[in-house]
Amino acid sequence: MISAFTGHSPLYRSKKKKNVGKLFTPGVTVAFSVLVLILLACIFAPVIAPYDPNAQDLTQCLAKPSADHLLGCDQNGRDIFSRILYGGRTALVSALLVVAFSMVVGIPLGLISGYKGGVIDTIIMRCCDVLLSFPSLLLAFILVAGLGRNTFNAVLALGIVYVPMLTRLTRSLTLVEKNKVYVSACVSLGYSDTRIIYRHILPNCISTILVQITLDIAYAILDLASLSFLGLGTQPPQADWGAMLDEGRAVLLMNPMLSLAPGLVIVIVVVALNIFSDGLHQYLDQSQTALPNIDKYEKKMNRKLAKEGGAVDG
Amino acid sequence: MDNLLEIQNLTVELMSTRGIVYALSGVDLTVRPGEIHGIVGESGCGKSMTAKSILRLHNPQRSRMRGSIRFQGRELLDLSNREMEKLRGTDISMIFQDPMTSLNPIMPIGAQIADMYRIHTKASKAEAMEKAQELLAKVGIEPASKRCKQYPFELSGGMQQRVMIAMAIACSPKLLIADEPTTALDVTIQAQILELLQQLSADMGMSILLITHNFGVVAETCDRVSVMYAGKVVETGNTLDLLQGASHPYSRALIRSIPGGGAKGSRLETIPGSPPALFEPPLSCMYAPRCPYAEEGCQKAYPAMIDCGGGHLAACFKPLDKEVPNHV
Amino acid sequence: MSEPVIRAEHLVKEFPIASKKLGEPKKVLHAVSDVSLSIPKGSIFGIVGESGCGKSTLGRSLLRLETITGGKVYFQGRDITDLSGKDLLPLRRDMQMIFQNPYASFNPKQKIGAALREVAKVHKIPAQEAEEKIKYLLKEINLPEDTLNRIPSEMSGGQLQRLAIARALILDPAFIVADEPVSALDVSVQAQILNLMMDLREKFSLTMLFISHEMTVVRHLCDQVAVMYLGTVVEQAESEELFNNLLHPYTQTLMSAIPTLDPEHKKQRIVLQGDLPSAIDVPPGCPFADRCPKCQPQCKESRPQLKDVGNNHLVACHLVG
Lengths: 314, 328, 321
Description:
The complex is a heterotrimer. By secondary structure, chain A is mainly alpha-helical. Chain A is 67% helix and 1% strand. Chain A starts with 10 loop residues before the first strand and ends with a strand. Chain B is globular.
C-alpha cells in the first residue's frame, strides 16, 4: 500500500489571501452607478438644469418633449427636466434627513434597551409597540396634520415613524452580542456600560444596521412622495418628485410625461437602492456569499496570474 | 488481506470564502473488518474532512476529489449519487460531535429512529417502531417503551449521543464513522459512550472509524490508529506500537505534549510554530518547518508512506527509532 | 500566615428559574451551595468538576461578576460581598479573568493593539507607560510587535489565548480567574499555554483560580485542588496529597474515567451509571449518592460535611474518615 503522492491539479500560487466575495458584482455596480449619477445630477442641478425650476414660460404650457425642453413643460410652462433635478434635491435630502433622524434616536434607544434590559427595556419596547400599532403613513398624517403642512414637518413625522423599526432591529442585534464572551470580558476588565455599548457592541451590529438603513432610504423616498402627493409634504411651488406626481394628475391625458417622469425616477432610485442594499448584505455577511464553482474559480485565477506574469506550475 | 475500506492517495480541494483550500493531500488509510480505527490530529488537520469524503458529503460544485476510496471492493468515487445515497446509513453511517443539532427537536426520538429505519428497509410502521425500541434498549436507553416517546431536549447530552448511535446502527452498517463522538461530553459520560461503541463493534462485527483529538481515547478504544497532519496521514500503526514508539517526529511530539507524564510543574514538550494554512498545495514535507530533525532533503520533496516494520507506516524520510519510547 | 488574597466563606449562589406553568412555585437552581475556600498569595488553586457542577459560577462569583445569594467574599481582607455598580469598577483593576474560547473573548472588530491599549486607558495608565508595558508583555508571551496591528480572526487560537493572558496582566492584577483556559485548544498548543502560565506565575507571582474539567491539567499546574460536584466541594487538598490519595468515590471515578495512554489503566476503569442530577431539585442526602458505587442508606438521608482527615485533606463523604 505504498503509494507516491501524485499532487494536486495544476495550481496557481497566490500571494494575497483575499476574500472571494466582492461588493461590486455586476448588478450592484449598475445600481451604484445609477445612484451616484442621479445624486450628482441633483447636487449640480444649478449647473445642469437648463431653466429655473420655477420660471414660467406661458407660451410653453404643456409643451411636448423637444430639444429646448427635454421632457416638455407642465401646465404652468415650467421645464420638467429642471424640476426633476431640483425636485430630486428636495426628495433625496428629505429622505436622508428622515433616516438620519431615525438613526440618531433609534440606534441608541435600541442599544440601551437591549443591553440594560429590565424596566428600561420594557418602557422603550412598549413605546415602540404603540407607535408600530398604527399604520405608518396614517401616523405620519396625524403628525403632519397636528404640526402643519410643510417639508420639515413631513420629514419629522416620518422620522418618528421610522424610529421604532430601527430600535427593534438594534435591540435584537444587541441581545445577541450582549451574550457573547467578549462582552463579559469587557465587564470583567472594568469597562463602563457606555463604553461597552458604543465601542464594542455597536461596531459589531453596525453592518446589519447599515443594510437596513439603505433600505430605509428607499422607503423614505416612497413615503415622502406619498405625503407630497397627498399635499401633506412639500408645498408648491417648490419642486419635489411626489408633488410633481400630484400636479401631473390633472393633466395626465394631455401630457403624461408630467407624472411619468418623476414616477419613473422614483422607481429607478428605489430599485437601485434595493439592489445595492441586497449586495451590501451579501458582502457583509460572508456566509451568504455564494461560493463560485471551483473549476471556474481556478481558471479565472490562473488567467489572472498568467496576465500578471506570475508562475503557473504544473 | 481483505480490507473493508481502503483509501489511497485521496486529495480533496475545496472552495472557501478565502480561495481554494487544499484540504487533503494524498491520504492513505485502511480499515479492516471489525476493527476500531482511530484518526487523531489537531484541529484543521483534515480528520473530519476524511470522514466526510468517505461519504462524499462535499458539494460537487465547490470541491474536487481525486484518488481512490474502495469500500468492500467498490470504488466509491465512481458511484452515482443514487447509489451513494443508498450506501449512506445502510452500509456506512456516521455520528457527529454535537448530537443536539443532529436530532430533530420536534419529533420523539423513537419516531425519528423508526423513520430512519423505514427509509432504508421499507418496513411497516409497527415493525419500525418495534425495531426502534429494540435499538434503544441496545444502546442502553431503558425502559425503551417509555423513553422512545421523549423529545431530544428531555435527554442529556450523553443520552442524545446514544440515540444518534441507535440511529446509526439501525441497518447494521459495516462501518460506523464516529466524528469526535465524545468531545462535547463529560469524562464520566465519555467513558460510557466509548464502552458502548466497543461493545457494539464486538457484538455486530462492525468496524468503527473513530475520529478524535484525544490520544487517551485512542489508547483505550482503538486497535489501530492513524495520525494526521496538514491534510495527510503521517503515521499508521497498531495503537500500542504507535503510542509507545512513534516513528514520525510529529506523532512523537504530539504524544509528548500531553500533560500527566511528567512531574507537577515540569515543563511540557511543545511543538514550535503552528500548522500551515492549507491555501497552498504542499510541495515538500508539511511538517519540515517545525521538525527538529528536518534536513535539507525534507524541504525539497514530498515524503511517501514507508514501512517501518510490522505494518507500521510513516510518511517521513527519516523515521525515528521505534525502540526509543515516547516518554523520556 | 498572611491574609489570603481571596477568601470565600459559605458562598451560596442561586439562580431563579422562570416557572413553566402559571401558578407553579418559583424554583431555584443551586449553582454553588456553601463553598469556602481561601487562596494565599502566589498560589494556584484548581477547581475540577464536570459541566454544570458550578465551577464557573464560583469563579464569576469570586470576581463579583455575579451577585451573591449568601455567604461572604473577602478580597485582600476587604468584604466585597455587597459591592455593586460603580463601587465594583476599581475592583476590576485588581481582579482579572481569562476565558475558555480565545476567539470569543476578543471583540472581533477591534485590532489587538487597540484592545490592549483600551484596558490601560480605561484604568488611567499613562499612554507612554502602557505602551512600554504592552511591548514588555508581548515579549513575555513570545509574539512579535506587529501583532498589535492585526485583528483577532487573523490569529490562531493559541496566539489569542496568549494575548488574553497578556491583556489580563497589563493591570498587574492581584488575582486572576482562568476559566478553562486550555480546554478549547489542541494538545500541543495547550502545552505551550500551560508552560507560559508556569513561567509567568514565577515572574509575576500570580495568584490564580484555575477552573478545568481536566484532572491531568490541574494536577500539572495547581498547588491546591478542590473537586466540585453539583455545587459543593466534595474533596479538597494539596495537589500532591489529593492525587496520591483519592478518597472521595466521585474523585476516584472521575480520575479513572480519564482515558490515559497507559494500556494497563483500562482494566480498572469505573464506569459510572446515569447522568449528573439536576441542580434544581437537589436531594437531601449526599449529592453523589444516586450514582455512587459505594452508596449506603445513610448517604441518602443526611448530607456529609467536609471534614479534615489529616494532611489538610478535606473530604465530604460518610464513608471516609
